[in-house]
Amino acid sequence: MALLEVKDLKVRVEEREILHGLTLTVNEGEIHAIMGPNGSGKSTLSHVIAGKPGYEVTDGQILFRGEDLLEMSPDMRAAKGVFLAFQYPVEIPGVATMNFLRTALNAQRKARGEDEYSTPDFLKKVREVSKSLNIPQDMLKRGVNVGFSGGEKKRNEVLQMALFEPSLCILDEMDSGLDIDALRIAADGVNALHSPKRAMVVITHYQRLLNYIVPDVVHVMSKGRVVKSGGKELALELEASGYAQFEDAA
Amino acid sequence: MNVAVAKTGKGRAVSDLFTSAEGRLPGSSAVTAVRREAFETYERLGLPHRRIEEWKYTDLRALVGEVLTLAAAPDAAALKRAADAVKAHAIDGARKLVLVDGVFAADLSDVKALASEAGFKTLRETLDKDAGLLKTASTDAVIALNAAMATDGVVLSIADGAKLSAPIQIIHIATASSASAFTRSQVTIGNDARATIVESFVAAGSKAYQVNDAVIVSVGNNADVAHIRLMDDAPDAVNVSSHFVTIGANVKFNFFNMTTGAAVSRLQGFITLAGEGSELSANGVNLLQKTEHGDTTLVVDHAVPNCVSREIFRAVIDDRAHSVFQGRIIVRPDAQKTDGKMMTRALLLSDEAEADNKPELEIFADDVSCGHGATAGALDDSLLFYLKARGLPEKQAQALLIQAFVGEAIEQIADDGLREHVIGIAEHWLERRS
């Protein structure tokens, strides 16, 4: 069974249709890249998979391990193993990162019927994970993302990914706002988390990110549909010739 | 002046309230004369209503309608219920002074333990020597009614240089339903003293009661004082409380009010900075739901130069609840170099929730730094979605954001233990809500 199946998905925002029948299949362990020009619907797809309000699915299906994802609340999707790394992670003043991480992890475990972590067990786990990602402990004491640099915010997303151990990670424009060093650090984190059981969907406007996270499959989106799929060489082709050639195909 | 609405439900004249209670009101004839005068003031004014500017948002005639008759002195069964409530609400290590339905309950209080650290008498014991305890400069009707009707209270004096080893907790317990309790207390804190005073208002199985409390606090020079008020009266109760605080020179005064109960409540604080070099930190949180109405009205009077005042208030308002914050900062002509700031924020959890903010600056000096800010809004959807996308169910995501919102006020509480206690009250409220 495929991990994620998006079938002929049509999505509206207010009165405007953004996705016009999008189909995508992702299997366990695969890395998919979704590329496309601004306004092609890449971020809409990631938001609809994560369950962000404000999008109306008018047709089609999203199945996660065969279960209807669209019937689930966002928190239930997270508990099932869907993780969206935000393009712009929000700042939450007054909520300490450590408290947020523990609350979220235990909420997911509770939803899955697993035992919640005790405080010492949690601290041990978060220390291990943050050490492996070179995240300083004082960052965890601050409010969630408050005063973090762009690179720190993305590393905090990667930290959560490592801690929550999702089976599907969607990285929405992970490269936006990052300089090349910050991008490499974040990408190294992502690569370290890739496993035969964990799939990644990398949404990006530029080929640059794919130098660091090498995809198995590249999809080109235009005007709300996947218009071409291929191997990693497709990304290089796009970099050379641009998206214009696909505009007509859509 | 229309006093008709201040009649009781049985149609008796409002003066019956006083006449029928008079036998239970302590004090010699001199005290009775003061009470009579106060009652005449109340009778002339009636309950405050919206056409009185200070009560514009809290119209007691509309919200309360009538003043209930005085609660009977608690019997053994009432004291038993009160004892359970004391256990549930006592702060660890605090010296307790308990008032049940407006009457001091010695058996539930830690009078002996307190004796080595502070002077203590009841209002009842003190009034004959000092009828002035019933007098304030205020012309407010509910304060006049309090002077007329006060049955008891605590009179505390903390000597110069005394450093209290534990907080003193004044616990007001209501055991009588559909009745009212009037209490008045005085706290005198000497020079160089250090004290923490906690006031708690709770119910013990009682319903639809009314509380009218007044506290007169005076603080000597160089003192360090924390004053925490925790009002968690029954959901259909009324609580109207008045604080008169006079602060000497070089004092640190840390005040916090938490409102989590009562159908209708108002805390009106009148704080005068009367000595130079003092720092006042006055903060509070209203957590309101259903049709609760919670009003915090604070007048901070900078009477002398070189004082600092900081006010941070947060209101969380659910359902059809209504929160009011009125903050006035007065800077007298001599009070140069005053630094006064006030920030109030309301979080509206429902479309029908209401917040009224009325900040006022009355500045008569020309070399001061004063400011205020007020905001009102809903929970941020983008923050909620982020938390939900990380696995937090809706109510839990809301709770985390609400805790952060009120945290900005709660973290102003200087004492670690009391701060944790207040955080616990907020958490409990959030659990009750979900």
Please explain how this structure is put together.
In chain A, strand 1 (4-13) and strand 2 (16-26) form a beta hairpin. By secondary structure, chain A is of the alpha/beta class. Chain A has nine helices and twelve strands. In chain A, 37% of the residues lie in helices and 28% in strands. The mean pLDDT of chain A is 93. Chain A has a six-stranded mixed beta sheet, with helices on both faces. In chain A, helix 2 (74-80) crosses helix 3 (97-111). The longest helix of chain A is centred in the middle third of the chain and has 15 residues, at 97-111. Chain A has helices spanning 42-50, 74-80, 97-111, 119-132, 137-141, 150-164, 180-193, 233-241, 244-247, and strands at residues 4-13, 16-26, 31-35, 56-64, 67-68, 82-85, 92-96, 143-144, 168-172, 199-204, 217-222, 225-230. Chain A has a single domain, classed as P-loop containing nucleotide triphosphate hydrolases (Rossmann fold), CATH 3.40.50. In chain B, the strands form two sheets. Chain B has a ten-stranded mixed beta sheet with strand order 2-1-5-7-9-11-13-15-17-19. A nine-stranded mixed beta sheet of chain B has the order 3-4-6-8-10-12-14-16-18. Chain B has one domain. Chain B has 434 residues and is of the alpha/beta class. Chain B has helices spanning 14-21, 29-45, 60-63, 76-89, 111-115, 123-126, 141-149, 381-389, 394-410, 416-433; strands at residues 95-100, 103-104, 119-122, 154-158, 168-174, 180-189, 194-203, 210-219, 224-232, 238-247, 252-259, 264-273, 279-288, 293-302, 308-317, 322-331, 339-348, 354-363, 369-377. The interface between A and B is medium-sized, with 29 and 23 residues.
Query: What sequence of helices (H) and strands (E) makes up the elements of chain A?
Result: EEEHEEHEEHHHEHEHEEEHH
- Unreliable parts of chain A: none
* Global structural class of chain B: alpha/beta
What is the ordering of alpha helices and beta strands of chain B? HHHHEEHEHHEEEEEEEEEEEEEEEEHHH
Q: State the assembly state of the protein chains.
A: heterodimer
How is the biggest beta sheet of chain A arranged? Answer: 6 strands, mixed
CATH class of chain A: Alpha Beta
Q: How do the strands line up in the largest sheet of chain B?
A: 2-1-5-7-9-11-13-15-17-19
Indicate how many domains the architecture of chain A comprises: 1
Number of domains of chain B: 1
**Counted beta strands of chain B:** 19
- Report the CATH topology name of chain A: Rossmann fold
Rg calculated over all Cα atoms of chain A: 18 Å
Secondary-structure content class of chain A:
alpha/beta
Tally of individual helices of chain B? 10
